[in-house]
Amino acid sequence: MNRLGVVVVAHNSEREIGGCLESLRPFGGEIVVVDNASADGTVECVRREAGVRLIANPWNRGFAAAANQGIGALAAPYVLLLNPDVRILDSPAPLVEACSHPDVAAAGGKLLDESGRPQKGFMIRRLPAPAALAFEALGINRCWPRNPVNRAYRCLDLPDETSDVEQPPGAFLLIKREVWQKLGGFDETFRPVWFEDVDFCNRIKQIGYRILYVPRVRASHKGGHSVGQLGWEIREAYWYGNLLTYAAKHYQGPAVCAVCGAVVLGSALRALTGVLRFGSLKPIAVYDRVVRLALRACLARITHPAGRPSYGAIGQC
Fold first, then answer.
1. What is the C-alpha separation between 305 and 294, in angstroms, rounded?
2. Continuous segment of H or E residues that includes residue 32
3. What are phi and psi of 148, to 5 degrees?
4. Do 266 and 291 meet the contact criterion of CB atoms below 8 Å apart?
5. How far apart are CA 13 and CA 30, in angstroms?
6. Is the Cα torsion angle 166, 169, 173, 176 positive or negative in sign?
7. What angle (nearest 5°) sits at the alpha carbon of residue 314, between those of residues 231 and 125?
8. 210: helix, coil or strand?
C-alpha cells in the first residue's frame, strides 16, 4: 500500500487541473479528484488522465464535503490535499516524514506565486484571534496591512525554516489520516468554501497534535481560480457567513458579539462605498443580509451561551 494519497478538489478547473496532475506524476501514489459539479471541461480532462480516480458530484457540495469524500476514498495513511491551481515542485516525502512523528497531525510547505515569490501571509497563518477577524471585517488589515494584529495573524514574522505552526492553508496540506478520522473529517458546515481549513487546524491543536511548516517542499500556487468566478456579492456572502460560523464555534460569548459588531460596522462602510463605487443600491441589499446574519449570530450566542449555533450557508437565512 502506498503511504501517500492525493486529493484534489475541483470546481470549474479545466484550465488548471491538467498542470496540477502532471506535477504529481513523478511522485507516485493514488490520486483522487473530487469534482464539485463543474460546468466546464474539468471532468473530461480528469477522465483523460491515466491512473487518476474521479468522483464527480452532481452538485457543488463545497470544499469540506468534497475533501472528506476524497480522503475517505483512500486507504493511504497520509493524504496530500491540493487545490487544482497548485503545482508541486519538490517531492512531498519530507512532509510525510514530518507527519510520521506520533505527535504531528499535518504539515504544509512553501507556496510560491507565479513569479516565484513566497506567498507570505497566506501559506502560513496563526489561528485567528477575535481581534484579527474584527480587523478583517472592518477593513483595517487592508488599509494598514502591517499593523501588529495582522502581522501576528499572517505570520509575517515567521522564520523560513521548519517550525511548528498553527494553520497552513487547505490548498497545500498533508494530513495524517488517523487524525482526520479522530476529528470526524472537515466540518461540512463551512460551505462552499472558506474557514473549513482554519477550523480543521484549530481542532487538531485542541486535541494536542502539532502542525509543521516544511519550507523545503515547494509548490507554485496561482490562487483564487474558482472563487474568482463568483460575483463579488456571492463572495462576500460566503466569506462573512463562514467567518461568523467560525467565530460562533470557537469563541466565547463576548468575543462572538465583538466580531459580530465589527461585521455590522464593516458591512455598513462597505455598503456605502459600494453605492458610491457602482452607482447602484445593490450593495445595500448584499450587506443587509450580512448584517442580519451577524445580529442573529450575536443574539443566538447571548440566548444560548453554552450552545454551538451554526451560521453557514448565508443564502439560506
1. 16
2. strand 30-36
3. -60, -40
4. no
5. 20
6. positive
7. 75
8. strand
DSSP 133-185: HHHHHHTHHHHSTTSHHHHHHTTTT--SSSEEESB--TTEEEEEHHHHHHTTS
DSSP single-letter state for residue 118: B
Q: What is the mean pLDDT of residues 101-126?
A: 96
Pairing of strands 210-221, 104-112: parallel
Sign of the alpha-carbon dihedral angle for 151, 154, 155, 160? negative
| Selection from 260, 178, 174 nearest residue 214 by Cα | 174
| Burial degree of 72 (CB within 10 A; 0-12, 13-18, 19+) | middle
Identify the DSSP state of 212.
Answer: E
pLDDT, tens digit, 9 for 90 and up, residues 200-215: 999 999 999 999 999 9
Closest by CA position to 154, among listed 185, 172, 137, 129? 129
What is the tens place of the pLDDT at every residue in 144-191? 999 999 999 999 988 889 999 999 999 999 999 999 999 999 999 999
Tell me the pLDDT band of 233, cut-offs 50, 70 and 90. Answer: confident
Q: Which CATH code is given to the segment(s) 4-118+160-221?
A: 3.90.550.10
Spatial contact of 128 and 239, defined as CB atoms under 8 Å apart: no
List the Cα angle 172/119/187 in 5-degree steps.
40
- Show the cell assigned to 198: 482554519
Residue 169 CA to its chain's centroid (Å): 6
